[in-house]
Design a protein that fits this description.
single chain, about 300 residues, alpha+beta, 7-stranded mixed beta sheet, 6-stranded antiparallel beta sheet
């Protein structure tokens, strides 16, 4: 598998890359989540996208909207080239409540008849190729704002996503978990709500998401905690807010998930892998990295 990062930019609040994958196997990216929202624009590829149990069959010029903490994964359905633009960003950069302005549950918009988004992503590449320092960041933020405004405009004309449920019970369980994430007492509560056993719930999550329901809940809570800590909250205050009953349990889970303690003075990665290993080649070829802001990094 050959992976080329054609363009990339990253700072603490914004990460962008334009990636091309060729000669890949029919695999994908392991399930993961971000503590910032993400926009992915598919330029080329034969892929399925799963977001919190909902299955989307993507096509060219689809833009995927992934909210913070949504667990998602990409599955390649053939060995066709896969090319996409991707941006992960602090919503405060946009200047308006972007996600709240969209219809509830909207995750995919197709831009076949509207070339505004693809042109904006091309302009990001253009500026990354020619600018440096604060100027390139200013232009990227301006273009991100314009992308979000165009998504908001396009969302008003969308009739509905083309998606299927990975499994009806799994989707019901995820909906319940997301609605009660912080106060959820345990798996028994979910099972009572859905009238199923814990063993059946565990079986469904492993079969359809390749993750246990306990791990799903813990990963979302830890991602939320990492986000709060990165914004200046104290770990000793965050753990109860994020659904953990005692600090020692939270500390062990946090360190196991991220590789460092909650109080460590590090810049958190924006991507949290839930299970398995990344399938992206670790020896990516990087192009158009002529300035210090267009950098290669492995995780976000």
């Amino acid at each position: 598998m050959e992976t080329k990062i054609l363009y990339r930019y990253q700072d603490e609040r914004l990460k962008y890359d334009h990636t091309l994958m060729a000669d890949h196997r029919r695999v994908g990216y392991s399930a993961h989540t971000h503590n910032f929202p993400e926009l992915l624009f598919l330029k080329e590829g034969d892929v399925d996208f799963i977001i919190d149990g909902w299955h989307y069959r993507l096509k060219k010029n689809d833009l995927v909207i992934i909210p913070p903490l949504a667990i998602h994964e990409v599955c390649f359905e053939s060995d066709h080239n896969y090319e996409r633009y991707d941006v992960i960003f602090d919503e405060a950069l946009v200047g308006f409540p972007f996600l709240q302005s969209l219809p509830v549950g909207l995750r995919v918009i197709n831009f076949d008849s509207n070339d505004s988004i693809i042109n904006l992503f091309k302009r990001i590449d253009y500026y990354l190729d020619r600018l440096d320092g604060d100027l390139v960041r200013m232009m990227l933020v301006n273009l991100l704002q314009e992308i979000c405004v165009n998504v908001k405009l396009a969302a008003s004309t969308v009739e509905g996503d083309l998606y299927t449920q990975t499994n009806a019970l799994v989707c019901e369980a995820i909906t319940y978990i997301d609605g009660h994430l912080l106060e959820l007492s345990g798996l028994d509560e979910i099972c009572r709500e859905l009238f199923i056993t814990k063993s059946h719930l565990h079986h469904l999550f492993i079969k359809h998401l390749n993750i246990t329901p306990k791990k799903y809940i813990s990963s979302k809570r830890l991602a939320m905690a990492q986000r709060e800590i990165s914004f200046g909250a104290k770990p000793t205050e965050v753990y109860t807010k994020c659904g953990f009953s005692d600090y020692s349990t939270f500390y062990r889970a946090y360190k196991k998930q991220f590789g460092y303690s909650p109080s460590a003075n590090v810049t958190p990665e924006r991507t949290i892998y839930i299970y398995g290993e990344r399938t992206e080649n670790d020896t990516d070829s990087v192009h158009k990295t002529q300035n210090k802001n267009t950098v290669r990094t492995e995780n976000m």
